Amino acid sequence: MSKRLLFIVLPTLLLAMMLSACGSQTSWEDEKIAEVSNRIDADNVNTIWTIADGQSSGTGGGKLIRLEIKKQDGTAIDRFDINHEKLLHLIVISKDLSYFNHIHPEYKGNGVFEIQNDFPAGGEYRLIADFKPADGDSMTKMTWAQLDGKTAQPVPVKPDSKLEQVVQGNRVQLTIDRLAANQDTKLQFSIADERTNRPVTDLQPYLGAIGHVVILSEDGERYLHVHAEEGQGSGPDAVFETQFPKSGIYKIWGQFRRNNEVFTSSFVVNVS
Ligand SMILES: [Cu+2]
């Protein structure tokens, strides 16, 4: 923060000195100063979340999630850059990490995004939004939402003894090179067809990459950024890189697309 301040203060001082020295200024200098001081960073962004009763497509937990993105001074941020094919990515996770949804709210203009979601039960949910204001940094904003309604029995979050799972006809195997905090870590998902047992080579790009991976700590406080290695083909392996910030239990969701269908595998690991 102090570095950023220095970036704003120094050029301003310089310009003031130049102005007093020659009594004129160029538009180039004006532009430079505006660029530096207007750049939107996460500290300068407020996200206001509202959840209201919405339409339900069945289970009765239909809610309308609304987020309003503003600067700290209250002005709306109205332009966003597309990132991984969308203006905003919203992750919805129940407190016990058993429910996961990755959705893309509709942009209503004026910094407002909205989407309907069918929650499985009442209780606490983690809502995580990833977006990038135009002329700003990529950022993540999270909140806890308390939903009315009958709560479900919490599912214990226990590390998996075997990192293998079958989802929608796909056998997903996860290999992690090191489960240690503060180290560069590689996650490799290897996918085979459950029926034929053959490694798949027909993964389709999902959100502009080979897949999408989300990681959250057991307490829901640490959301990890995961990057797919570039230039990966269409399977059977998909490699991602991240760093666990602290030891503890984490849940990993790996999403892939095949036969025009997205499937989500999930694994719980213990990081030392
Ligand atoms: Cu997304």
TrEMBL record:
Signal peptide from the UniProt entry: 1-23
Keyword Signal among UniProt keywords: yes
Record keywords, A-Z: Signal
Protein name stated in the entry: Uncharacterized protein
Source organism of this protein record: Cohnella pontilimi
Lineage of origin: Bacteria, Bacillati, Bacillota, Bacilli, Bacillales
